[in-house]
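Dataset card, provenance and construction

Sequences and ligand SMILES were collected as paired inputs. For each pair, a complete structure of the chain with the small molecule in place was predicted and serialized as structure tokens. The example below shows a pair involving pyridoxal-5'-phosphate. Curators did not alter the output after generation; any descriptive sentences attached to a record were derived from the structure itself.
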Amino acid sequence: MSPSKPPGTFRYLQWHNAPITLFTTIMKLSDQYFDRALSLIPWGTQTNAKRPIPFFNETMPKFIERGKGCRLWDMDGKEYIDFRLSLGPVTLGYCYDEVDDAVREQMQKGVLFSMASPRELELAEMIRSTVPNAEMCRFMKTGEDANLSNVRIARAYTKRDMILMSGYHGYPDWFATEDSPNNGVPEFMKEYVKVIPWGDCEEAERLVRRYGERIACIISIPYDFNEDTSGSYIRYLRTLTREHGILLVMDEVLTGFRLALGGAQEFFGVDADLASYAKAIANGYPLSTYVGKREYMQTLDRFKMTTTYAGETLSIAAAIATMKIMKREKVHEHLWAMGTLLMEHFDAMAKEIGVEGKAMGLPVASWLKFTTPDIQFNERLAYLWQRELYREGIFANLRWFICYSHKESDIHEAAEKARRALHRALECEPNERSTTVPFYH
Ligand SMILES: Cc1ncc(COP(=O)(O)O)c(C=O)c1O
């Protein structure tokens, strides 16, 4: 082909404009998609948690094309061992055959009907025999749906209008008053919702004493996936709520079916009056459930609570299959064993590499915390390490979630890659001090 006769505009640009040539050839496919997405989808993604972090631009995949087991592949074909698991829901693994087969089988019969499907009862009975205090339950689609439903029940049952909340419960107005009015939540709602910083027993008691008779429920996460793994805070809330006739709503969206089959209620030995479950129940299919003691759940007989997709059968079939596998194969023992192995690797790699650090959290969702006296160094190092983990093909964000498809060989491989990433992060740190601004502190 003659250089003076390029065949088309694109080739013309390639030919005559070297920087564009370079740009088009090295720009990853996912970056090209992300540019297009930004002009059409706010932040280029459906949920803030999946927003690409600019500092990780070079290494963090912006789109995921597919997953299998504990592995993911991005649009450019790069493979990752995944420890984020779709923000928590993938407990067994991606494209888990037995779950997907159950979904395919249900698909032959229909996705959604004008009346209840027998699968709903089947799942409800399984939940009753698995989750503590689930004398009755109903299904929804998301974690916040379940939380909103429980708060509604608590208010209707107690005929009180205020709630106290502790931890993240989703984006709906009742749970987002802290950023009001900037986020579109009316300011008057602040009067009805008070926030207890998670773990702050004194503040919980102060608010209960101040607003006592007006409080319908305290809605709280049982564990914040941080260092305090004792369960003492949720136990304290249980005692406090009982003393004052307030309902305790446990938001088990992240802890349910993960810490144990019976969630944090079972793990910490704390009874909830009402509880919400979502992630981990159906291996990634969109399903949530709100459950509780009959006395409270029966309040639903008195008012309207209706939504079209709550009985969608594919997710229900997925949940039934997921729960069967969890029970039959003692999945949680495996999650704990693999998580413990990972934590041992964290401790060992910190020691070998000579950086002060320690494995933290519970094995089902742990992390390596850097513990040098220089807090800013620790934060920078964690940040650089995360960037380098993506480069190595490890997808992990703050907490390393374990799924049933993580086998010993995956954990060893991940640890090897994590070691290399940590070496590199330590090498980078002195040169990147001024540019490393952690986003999550
Ligand atoms: C504890 C907790 N509650 C509620 C939610 C909201 O769940 P969803 O995003 O399914 O509505 C989340 C989501 O991360 C969560 O972690």
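Derived descriptions for this record:
Residues 1-21 have pLDDT under 50 and may be disordered.
The radius of gyration is 24 Å.
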